[in-house]
Amino acid sequence: MSQPKYKRVVLKLSGEALAGEAGFGINPTVIQSVAEQVKEVNELGVEVAVVVGGGNIWRGKIGSEMGMDRATADYMGMLATVMNSMALQDSLEQLGIETRVQTSIEMRQVAEPYIRRRAIRHLEKGRVVIFAAGTGNPYFSTDTTAALRAAEIEAEVILMAKNNVDGVYSADPRVDKDAVKYTELSYLDVIKEGLAVMDSTASSLCMDNDIPLVVFSVMEKGNIKRVVLGENIGTIVRGK
């Protein structure tokens, strides 16, 4: 299968995925591998937008649990996503891929402000667009950002790249050896069973806008390309 199944995709990367085994910070080898995989997809003519989390640097929830004001902690998390986005941008551009970072919080010295029409135009020109700083609002996760941006730019699918699992399981496979891997689920299944795929706000947004989600491992090189080409790896979540 050599023809892409999708024309425009949103790739959701967790901050933890960029940290590698260390669990914190940015692992140069991992981010280079991700950039190379994105390049493979870009060269197929697929329009790629990326949403990056910030959990490898800061998690707003942890700050809140420490007694910090929740909004302040979440804004700090948004800034962490900008750092990750700039690192990914640099890795992509070293590979010769034109890239733009757009932020929901204006910081014009380092990135463009998020403008929907401009983002779509960049994609149409073959540039990779990285959406940083979440939705720009506290209390919303980067999962919700991925769902929102996918709806806004009319992406055909969200590719949720994981670093520690290769799909959606009935329980944590690292803890429960009897955990069952799902090949296909509905968003209602995810919400009803409380499966740790994405938060309920993001799941509802995807369900309401009929945006499918593919959950897969990003740690195996070439997996992003395999998903884009339509190979059945990971778990697909769709419909009601």
Automatic annotation (TrEMBL):
Binding site for UMP: G54, D74, T135, G136, N137, P138, Y139, F140, S141, T142
Binding of ATP, residues: K12, L13, S14, G15, G55, R59, N163, Y169, D172
Enzyme kind, highest EC tier: transferase
Gene Ontology annotations of biological process type: 'de novo' CTP biosynthetic process; UDP biosynthetic process
Compartment(s) of residence: Cytoplasm
Pathway(s): Pyrimidine metabolism; CTP biosynthesis via de novo pathway; UDP from UMP (UMPK route): step 1/1
Region listing for Involved in allosteric activation by GTP, in residue ranges: 20-25
GO function term, MF aspect, one: ATP binding
E.C. no: 2.7.4.22
Regulation of activity: Allosterically activated by GTP. Inhibited by UTP.
Keywords tagged on the record: Allosteric enzyme, ATP-binding, Cytoplasm, Kinase, Nucleotide-binding, Pyrimidine biosynthesis, Transferase
Pfam (any one): AA_kinase
Gene3D superfamilies xrefs: Acetylglutamate kinase-like (3.40.1160.10)
Domain Aspartate/glutamate/uridylate kinase span(s) in chain numbering: 7-217
Main localisation: cytoplasm
Subunit structure: Homohexamer.
Function as written in the Swiss-Prot or TrEMBL entry: Catalyzes the reversible phosphorylation of UMP to UDP.
Protein name: Uridylate kinase
Species of provenance: Domibacillus iocasae
Gene behind the chain: pyrH
